[in-house]
Write a structure and sequence with these properties.
By secondary structure, the protein is an alpha+beta fold. The chain contains five helices and 18 strands. It is elongated.
């Protein structure tokens, strides 16, 4: 397994710590405020909205549209600030669900999305999901972590500040703008972004496995057929649930904004694909003929670690909109296994194994990742949106031909893609 229990617990603890940092910053460091502003130009009507940026020569206000005003054209600004309660509950519930599920259920390097399978039974090679335990744990996590976030983010205050821009000396104007920037500090820009992507995995190796064996008449399933371990060497005594198509922790990113449109940082992606089993039985109707059992299985576990950069096009349209594209390079660790067996069973005799094939690879290689994201700043500290990625990991390994399964030679390609949702925490 690509993700040990210790690693899962560490990731969960890190997510919970980030929750506390986020709520603490929201309550005590002025971030997370609602800022309403009235901006009065020297000529024309006043503008009501939220201030999203103060540059050296301009001010950005988002109201019914986006206004970019030259600082020299502004006569007066009235800023009303409010730090509301309740957002900490949202931050706590979201972060707690991700961290708790990953701590409990990361399997083959992947964490199922609120799946009842992670609370099931492993007896008799049958996995019995318990939906009651799923609902119980989910509600408990929402209550505990959401409640913790609510009480940490308990401060609720209002404030109003008025700034009159003088027409005289430049030093006096600079002093007033400096006071305004101090009031807006931590709200105008939150340069650190921590995001989590939950996504549907678009497999590569599984697609090949399914298409090749389905064409040969095999039945494909993610759940191991009953008694499967009798026909393969090295099969574990108890069946452990495999990775699912929906991965609650496909990718995490920690990014830092170096310019209004460019951010750089680190990314970790989990590229595991659901474990697959295939079975085909050929049974002649004539007495005395041979009965043949064809069985195969495949498992791919992987993760990649990347230095990456992204460019935000959305800020050209609206400061609250983020349309990011980018990529990165790093190292990916993959573990892959493919094996198959052919058993024959003559009447009144024990089954005999005729053919067996096994291919296994485990290693680390250079890898690249391509990223795309479209999100919206719901709060100053929270963004929600859609995300997609594609991981490319070149490999020189070749999976050999397996004639009795109908598998042709295949270049080992552990990379895959995903598409799903993302939520970001901004500091």
């Amino acid at each position: 397994m690509c993700c040990s229990l210790r690693h899962r617990r560490c990731c969960g603890i890190v997510l919970c710590i980030l929750l506390m940092l986020l709520c603490s910053r929201s309550a005590y460091a002025r971030d997370g405020r609602v800022i309403n502003a009235l901006v009065f130009p020297r000529t024309g009507d006043g503008i009501a909205g939220e201030i999203f940026g103060v540059d050296d020569d301009s001010l950005t206000v988002v109201g019914d549209t986006v206004y970019r005003l030259a600082r020299t054209d502004i006569a007066r600004i009235v800023v009303r600030t409010e730090v509301p309660r309740g957002r900490g509950f949202v931050y706590g519930a979201c972060t707690g669900l991700v961290g708790w599920n990953f701590m409990l259920s990361a399997i083959d390097g992947q964490a199922p999305l609120l799946s009842a399978e992670m609370y099931g039974s492993y007896k008799n090679h049958r996995y019995k999901a318990n939906s009651f335990l799923l609902a119980h744990h989910t509600l408990a996590v929402i209550a505990i972590f959401g409640g913790a976030g609510y009480f940490v983010d308990a401060q609720h205050s209002y404030g109003e500040h008025a700034f009159t821009i003088p027409t005289g000396a430049e030093e006096e104007q600079h002093s007033v703008w400096k006071e305004l920037q101090d009031v807006l500090a931590d709200n105008v820009e939150t340069p650190i972004r921590f995001s989590v992507a939950s996504a549907v995995v678009v497999p590569s190796m599984n697609h090949w496995f399914q298409s090749e064996l389905s064409a040969s008449g095999f039945d494909i399933d993610r759940e191991r057929p009953f008694g499967y371990g009798e026909y393969l060497i090295g099969e574990e005594e108890y069946y452990n649930a495999a990775a699912l198509e929906i991965n609650i922790l496909r990718r995490i990113q920690a990014m830092y904004q170096i310019t209004p449109h460019v951010e750089v940082g680190l990314c970790v992606a989990w590229t595991s694909e659901p474990r697959l089993y295939a079975m085909r039985i050929i049974d002649s109707l004539r007495p005395g003929d041979v009965k043949r059992y064809y069985r195969a299985r495949q498992k791919l576990s992987g993760s990649g670690y990347y230095a990456c950069a992204m460019y935000d096009f959305g800020r050209y349209v609206d400061p609250r909109c983020n349309l990011r594209f980018g990529g990165g390079a790093g190292l990916a660790t993959n573990s892959y296994m493919l094996d198959g067996v052919l058993w024959s069973h003559h009447a009144n005799t024990a089954p005999e194994r005729e053919q067996y094939s096994h291919f296994e690879y485990s290693g680390t290689a250079f890898s690249t990742i391509f990223l795309a994201e479209c999100s919206w700043r719901v709060y100053d500290n929270l963004s929600l949106g859609l995300a997609a990625d594609y991981v490319f990991t070149p490999s020189s390994r070749v999976i050999p031909v397996v004639p009795f399964l109908g598998l042709q030679e295949k270049q080992f390609a552990p990379g895959n893609g995903s598409i799903g949702v993302t939520f970001g925490l901004h500091f």
